[in-house]
Design a protein that fits this description.
Largest sheet: 6 strands, mixed
Number of strands: 11
CATH topology of the largest domain: D-Maltodextrin-Binding Protein, domain 2
Strand order of the largest sheet: 2-1-3-10-4-11
CATH class of the largest domain: Alpha Beta
Order of helices and strands: HEHEHEHEEHEHEHEHEEHHEH
Distance between the termini: 69 Å
Shape: globular
Radius of gyration: 22 Å
Strand content: 15-25%
Length: 317
C-alpha cells in the first residue's frame, strides 16, 4: 500500500516536469525576411508539430544582436525561450565591445549549431584580376586603391578583409555600408570593387555575370561552386569567412529542454527534402552538433575571432 501511495504522490511531480508545457518562443536576433529568420520559421513550424505546442518566432533585431541576447539571458530559465542567433553574439561581440549586458560564456547554454555558411570574396567584372594571386599582385601596385564593402566595423566581411590584408601584405580600403543587403549591390553598381557575401546572396548575380567569384572560405570547395578555390588551398587558411546559426537557452535551463530541443531540431535538419531544398541548395553546410560539441566549437571560434578583431583594429560603432 505504501508503494502505491509513493507512486501516486510522485506522479504529479513527474507530470509537472513535462516539457514543453506551454508555447515556446524562438527569439531571432535579426529582422524578418533574412536567411536566419526564414530558417527559424521553418524549424518552428516543424517543432510545433512534434511538440504539440505552438512555437512562435519573435524578431528582436538591433545593436549587433545584443538586444535579443540580453532579452533571452534575462528570460525565465524554463526552456521555453530560445535564442537563435549567429557567431556575432558569442564569437565576435565579446572582443568588439568593452562592455556587454550579457556574458557570452556564463549566461547561456549552447543547444546546437544548425548550419555553417562560408562567404565568397566577389568582385566587379571590370576588376583586372580573376584569381586571388592576381588580386594580391594588383593591390600591391595600388595601395588603398581597391575598395571592399562590408556592413560595418567588426562585421564578418570586415574581419575577413582585414585578415587578408594582414596575411597578404596588401592595403585595401574598407568601405562600411549600413546594412548587410547593401554590399553586393555596391559591387554590382561598381561603387566598390570587392565584398564578402554568402552563396545564396551571390548566386544570382554570379550566374548573370554581374559579379565574379575570387575565393571562398572553408576547408573544402562548395559543391554549388566547385570551380571556386578556397582561401586555404591558395595559402591563406587564416582568412576565415564563415558564419553560423545556432540555438541557445538561458543558463540553468532544464537539461530535459536542452536535450529535447537538440534531438528534435536535429530530426528536422535530417529530413531529406528540408535538408536539400532549404539548406544545402542555398549554400548552407548542415551541422546539427550536440550541446557538448557546440560548446567546444564556441571556445575555439571565440579565440580565432579574437585574433581577427585584434588584427582588424575593429571597435564597436
Amino acid at each position: 500500500m505504501r508503494f502505491f501511495l509513493t507512486v501516486l504522490l510522485a506522479f504529479p511531480c513527474f507530470a509537472a516536469q513535462a516539457w514543453p508545457d506551454k508555447p515556446v518562443r524562438i527569439v531571432v536576433a535579426y529582422p524578418p525576411g533574412g536567411g536566419i529568420d526564414v530558417m527559424a520559421r521553418q524549424i518552428a513550424e516543424k517543432l510545433g508539430a512534434q511538440w504539440g505546442q505552438p512555437v512562435v518566432v519573435e524578431n528582436r533585431p538591433g545593436a549587433n544582436t545584443i538586444i535579443a541576447a540580453d532579452a533571452v539571458a534575462r528570460a525565465p530559465a524554463d526552456g521555453h525561450t530560445v535564442l537563435m542567433t549567429t557567431d556575432a553574439t558569442f564569437s565576435i561581440n565579446p572582443h568588439l565591445y568593452a562592455k556587454l549586458p550579457y556574458d557570452a560564456e556564463r549566461d547561456f547554454v549552447p543547444v546546437t549549431m544548425l548550419v555553417l555558411l562560408q562567404q565568397l570574396l566577389v568582385a566587379h567584372p571590370s576588376l583586372p584580376a580573376d584569381t586571388l594571386p592576381e588580386l594580391i599582385k594588383l593591390a600591391k601596385t595600388k595601395p588603398g586603391g581597391i575598395r571592399y564593402a562590408t556592413y560595418g566595423s567588426g562585421s564578418q566581411p570586415h574581419l575577413s578583409g582585414e585578415m587578408l590584408k594582414y596575411k597578404a601584405g596588401i592595403d585595401l580600403l574598407h568601405v562600411p555600408y549600413k546594412g548587410i543587403s547593401l554590399a553586393v549591390p555596391a559591387v554590382i553598381a561598381d561603387e566598390v570593387e570587392l565584398t564578402f557575401a554568402g552563396i545564396a546572396t551571390s548566386m544570382g548575380p554570379l550566374k548573370a555575370g554581374r559579379i565574379k567569384a575570387i575565393a571562398i572560405g572553408g576547408a573544402q570547395r562548395s559543391p554549388l561552386l566547385p570551380q571556386v578555390p578556397t582561401f586555404a588551398e591558395l595559402g591563406f587558411p587564416e582568412v576565415e569567412t564563415h558564419a553560423w546559426f545556432g540555438l541557445f537557452l538561458p543558463a540553468n535551463s532544464p537539461s530535459q529542454a536542452v536535450s529535447r530541443i537538440y534531438a528534435d531540431t536535429r530530426k528536422v535538419l535530417e529530413e531529406p527534402e528540408f535538408r536539400q531544398k532549404q539548406l544545402v541548395d542555398k549554400g548552407y553546410e548542415v551541422v546539427g552538433s550536440s550541446p557538448d560539441q557546440f560548446l567546444l566549437y564556441l571556445k575555439k571560434d571565440r579565440e580565432s575571432r579574437g585574433r581577427a578583431v585584434k588584427i582588424s583594429g575593429a571597435k564597436a560603432e
